[in-house]
Amino acid sequence: MADSPDSEPGSADAPAAGTVTVLRDGALLRLTLDRPDRRNSLSPPMTDALVTALTEAASDDTLRAIHIRGAGDHFCAGSDWVATNAGGGRPRTGDLVRRIPHAAHRVIELIHTIQLPVVSSVRGWAVGLGCNLALAADFTVAAADAVFWEPFLARGFSPDSGATWLLPRLVGLARARRMLLLGEQVSGTSAEQWGLIHQAVAPAELDAATDELLGRLIEGPTVAIGLTKQGLNYGQQASLPQAMTQELFNLELSCRTADFKEGLAAFTQRRPPGFTGR
After folding, report:
1. CATH no., domain 19-84+97-218
2. Residue 148 is inside which H or E element, if any?
3. Per-residue pLDDT reduced to its tens digit, 116-138
């Protein structure tokens, strides 16, 4: 729910709602947050569009990776209070509890659980929901001067969109407190050093670094990648015996794929594998 750094809650001049551009690039799905005049802050229609695109991608067997980026100079400046409150009037009691699980929270859940590798590329601001969207991805590549910021308490309300779950697991409680309780802004360089993101690069190298990573993921054994992602997520809240049992079920499934057979053949023939994602 965190707002854009430049939004004005309650403003009478609600900006255009913006869009999410969905582009199919071979086996890659590119989702672009397209509202650069508002630092790609997410309006309700944009959040709904993300839910729809990610839900459809989850059952598309021809996809092998997802890329999330922002148009222009910024990734995403959070939820836009102006667009959210444009209708005027006081929402009925329980509005947030009823609505957000199917909107912002659903986006985070889909990114976290979809059995496809998700890569986000971040330049400029990644704020509130935008920050958590980037952190929920499997890999985040950021410009060294990008800014990750959780300004919830600075606005007078507590965090949402997975902030209290994601941050302690990524960087530990002490740094999670710095970001959430003190509102500390973290640069792309520091985010990499903390283990908050995968990689920080010079701004001019962001697109090339992201595409190189996506290329590696697209050429991988997609089913096994998805099952490994599921196993990693499950293991965060399971005992060792439970995690190993889940690994066995995932192994049973991955050993039935064409990519498993190709991996064995490539090993025997001493050549690089040519995985097809099947």
Report:
1. 3.90.226.10
2. strand 147-149
3. 999 999 999 999 999 999 999 99
